[in-house]
Amino acid sequence: MFVNWKRFILILATGAVAGLLWNAASGRGFALGRSVLVQAGDEIVAAADAKALLDRGALFVDARPRDFWRMSRIPGALPLPDEEFDRAFAEIEARLRRANGIVVYCSGFGCEASHLVARKLRERGLIAAILNEGIPAWEDAGFPMDSEPRS
Amino acid sequence: MRALASHPRVELLLRLLVGGFFVYASLDKIWSPAAFAKIVYQWQVVGPVPSNLVAATLPWVELLAGLLLLAGIWKRESALVVALMLVVFIVAAGSVMARGIDVENCGCVSVAKADTGSWPPAWTKGVGWFLVSRNLVLLGVALAIAFLPTDKPASPPPSR
What we know:
The structure holds 2 protein chains of 2 kinds.
Chain A (H helix, E strand, L loop, with lengths): L4 H21 L17 E3 L1 H9 L3 E4 L3 H6 L6 E2 L5 H14 L3 E4 L7 H11 L4 E4 L2 H7 L11
Parallel strand pairs in A: 1-5, 2-3, 2-4, 4-5
Chain B lengths: L1 H5 L1 H24 L1 H11 L4 H24 L3 H25 L22 H4 L3 H19 L13
Helix pairs in contact in B: 2-4, 2-7, 3-4, 4-5, 5-7
């Protein structure tokens, strides 16, 4: 019944310190100061910069599953779901190669699809920026969504 | 119920159960911290950098509290640490469910992609009622270890 709160805090603190040491020294750790989804070569743009690119005629591509794109999308965005990349890429490759800049987005900071799609585009010689923190960041910045259902 | 949980052998069994579960649950996450961080992101409870700190530290707290429970050292305090984590997990799962976020693999015991293999079944891996129910049971056990008095084993009769 008697709980020693110093021991309670000590367990939490020791575990946390061990975790930070392991992350720093084990060789299996990762950079704590930025998103773990970002890799060398990824170009990340904030919502305001992405909007400026859109206004200058950049092509937006939606890396989420196609059903999400059907429900709503950033205006003008084309579907390029990571899970069916090859097929979707073949459909829109000509437009991608003509585009005056490409921005890829998905559903938020927890979503890896925009990073994966941008890397697949890079493998095919196309440079695409990744919208930082995806649609929530876009909406938080006050930019519009196109919610007209598509088939 | 109270008397049963206070029985030394029952208490030992409960400690082995909860401690063993937490040790087991920590190992995959400790081995693959970046993969675990990606799963923490999917919960979308806190932003990327706080999620990174959770991913780096939480599995080690699980491991330490689990080992202490198994060993019976500072068992009330380690059971309370486990209880605190379970409360956080339950609240976070409720938040994920309320917001309608689909997390295929909760990252509770494994960081493997959800679509690898058919066992265990998907409903045991995602964030949903199974997870919340399991955590409520574990929480009850952890609180019992933390707060119920343990009967002393009967002392042997004095030798003549």
